[in-house]
Amino acid sequence: MKQHFMPIISNQQVSSRYWHMVVDSSRLTSPIEPGQFFHIRCSQGSFPFLRRPFSIYRINESTIEFLYLVKGEGTQEMTHLQAGEMLDVVGPLGVGFSLDKSADTILLVARGVGIATLAALAQEAVEKNVKCAAILSARSKDDLLAADLLQGFGAEVYKVTEEDGTSDVANVEEIIRGILKRNKIDGIYTCGSRRLSRLSQNIANEYHIPGEIALEEHMGCAMGACFACVCDVKEDTGVKSVRVCLEGPVFSLEKVVLG
Ligand SMILES: Cc1cc2nc3c(=O)[nH]c(=O)nc-3n(C[C@H](O)[C@H](O)[C@H](O)COP(=O)(O)OP(=O)(O)OC[C@H]3O[C@@H](n4cnc5c(N)ncnc54)[C@H](O)[C@@H]3O)c2cc1C
User: Fold this and answer.
1) Mutate which of 14, 18, 52 for ligand 1 pocket (most atoms within 8 A of beta carbon)
2) 98 neighbors 212 (Cβ within 8 angstroms)
3) DSSP code per residue over 43-57
4) Bond before 249 cis per omega within 30 degrees
5) Which of 38, 126, 140, 175 is deepest in the core (most CB within 10 A)?
6) Looking at ligand 1, which residue's alpha carbon is closest to its atom 17?
7) Residue 184 pLDDT > 80
8) CATH node for 217-259
9) What is 43-109 written as a DSSP string?
10) Residue nearest to atom 31 of ligand 1 (CA)
11) What are the C-alpha distances in Å from 204 to residues 61, 115, 125, 171, 213?
């Protein structure tokens, strides 16, 4: 088990629903890839018993960052963690995104906490000189936290929200088709919404663009033992059930079965 105790550098509320945590990862020896995740103990005590999975939001030289939405008991407990305390994590876990460095431009389609997951990929893209267009969808403008970060990476960012009445699938489809008219897109990456993932899958199929999806299923052990996070993927031999924690969380967009 890849368990580590990483010193917390900061843990701050950044909007009404989101928190941002920075930890010292200098003692981590394994490389970290965008799309991978850590299974985090949410409190210094034993409650809640099960760890919770979080993607890596930013990967720096000696720190990593998480962006998390306060949803239930675990994430509520996480907000009490203080700078100077140790964060008990297992990871990095799972299979990350693959990004071809010869790609010209990639398209990111993210919703809600999925934006945190795709931000690390945008960071890798800029490091590899791959251009990025990103559609970020959220309930409100307040929740579009990574928009500035992505714009700072040079990404062409399109923001859609319920608040503005712009987040419906038809509007997102129009934006995507416009991007595809103006750019040669070499990969579509999506996370955070079934509706937008289905749209991304249909468009990727129509334009024959390879794509990947990061799934955020409920997880138990995150070690492949409990089968709590199973999803279906299409193989040559038929549909196969796979574990998101072990075989994912990143899967081929073409192959994943989106219910
Ligand atoms: C690989 C992976 C990466 C993730 N990365 C991030 C991230 O970067 N930032 C972030 O904020 N969140 C992320 N999540 C989601 C995060 O793990 C859950 O929001 C968290 O576990 C909720 O814990 P909780 O104790 O606060 O809520 P709980 O009390 O466990 O649940 C509260 C409510 O949320 C629902 N819920 C819990 N987990 C999930 C889930 N995985 N999908 C859908 N609904 C859920 C429950 O059914 C319940 O209704 C990720 C999940 C996965 C699997």
Assistant:
1) 52
2) yes
3) SSSS-SSS-EEEE-S
4) yes
5) 38
6) 53
7) yes
8) 2.10.240
9) SSSS-SSS-EEEE-SEE-SSEEEEEEE--SHHHHHHTT--TTSEEEEEEEESB-----TT-SEEEEE
10) 72
11) 34, 19, 19, 17, 12
Looking at residue 129, the DSSP 8-state letter turns out to be T
The C-alpha atoms of residue 98 and residue 34 are separated, in whole angstroms, by: 9
Q: What is the pLDDT of residues 16-57, one digit of tens each?
A: 999 999 999 999 988 999 999 999 999 998 889 999 999 999
Q: Residue 171: what pLDDT?
A: 98
CATH classification code of 3-93: 2.40.30.10
| Tokens representing residue 166 in the block | 């712009």
CB 229 within 8 A of CB 148: no
Question: In terms of DSSP bridges, do strands 156-161 and 63-69 run parallel, antiparallel, or are they unpaired?
Answer: unpaired
Ligand 1 atom showing the smallest separation from residue 94 Cα: 1
Q: Is the pTM of this model over 0.85?
A: yes
Residue 1 has pLDDT above 70, yes or no: no
- Ligand 1, atom 1: nearest CA belongs to which residue? 216
Q: What CATH topology corresponds to 105-214? A: Rossmann fold (3.40.50)
Q: Where are the domains of the chain?
A: 3-93, 105-214, 217-259
Q: Calculate how far, in angstroms, residue 218's C-alpha sits from the geometric centre of ligand 1.
A: 7
Ligand 1 center to 53 CA (angstroms)? 7
Confirm or reject: Cβ of 194 under 6 Å from ligand 1.
Answer: no
Q: Is the fold of 3-93 the same as that of 105-214? A: no
Q: Which of 196, 200, 217 is nearest to 253 (CA)?
A: 200
